[in-house]
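>> received
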Amino acid sequence: MNDLKYFVFTLFLLSLVSCEDDRFSSTKVIEFPDHVSKLAVTSHLSVPVSSEFVYQTAPTAFVGNSLGIVEDVDFSIFPDASVKLYKEDELLFDFTYETDNNLFKGPETIELTEGTYRMDVSADGYESLSTTQVMPSKAKIQEVTYEFEKVPYDFDENLYDLLKVTIDDPADEENFYAFELYFTVKSSFNADTITFEAYSFTDDPVVEYGYDVGEIIPDISFNGNSYDLRLLQKSEWSVSQGDELISANVIIYSLSKDYYFYETTRSLNSDAQGNPFAEPVLVHSNFENGFGVFTLNNAVEYRYEF
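>> returned
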């Protein structure tokens, strides 16, 4: 009889629970603070290399504005904004706005050399922005060697070609290197000379990944010493077709520290999107009173003749 009473009482409790909201859930209203829109700028300036196959562009800058996390509007464009570039406090040039691509553009023939640069940006209704960058020194290449089918990698049964670039790394500065590799071949079909970018990567464990520039090598493990940058690639697909390898053209980029931070945080931010278990990653910014980045990179090219 007691068991029947307990059973009826249990049914009664269950009926009460079923008529109410889920007792294991709760609602928390999060109040977002009011967002004060600020200017947002992106500008990456490069020292051009005298390469016949790397497309050279004039300095550019994009100027928009920041939005709140819950704002469902588009950012603004500021054609009347002022964008100025200084070197050692001397005005180099004013950027001019181009309507076809919504970018501010500098002169085609400007030559950027080593030194300290400052970018100032202003637009009506917003606080002015300013930041400085020091142009990194060019990578000092001591030697370049190339060996065919030299290195095994991962679980690939094939051997990779090894292009080894020996760099003399300065001891008095932090350096961050990126690279591109191009092959020049003579076609077996019509004897024309063709240059193309090769897929190349390094097996160095200190490598980090940028969003646009690919693999980045910080000098934290070899600062002030000679460093062998090992670039792996397969040339067999061009050689097996009967093409003649003429040269391997390697470009070594020296990135400013802010460029390194921007590229790596942007890559991590992209990887975290859509992952509920990943912590959010803030993309690096180096402008005061606003958002965005102004960065510099230097470059040197070496042509290895086969």
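>> The chain has three helices and 18 strands.
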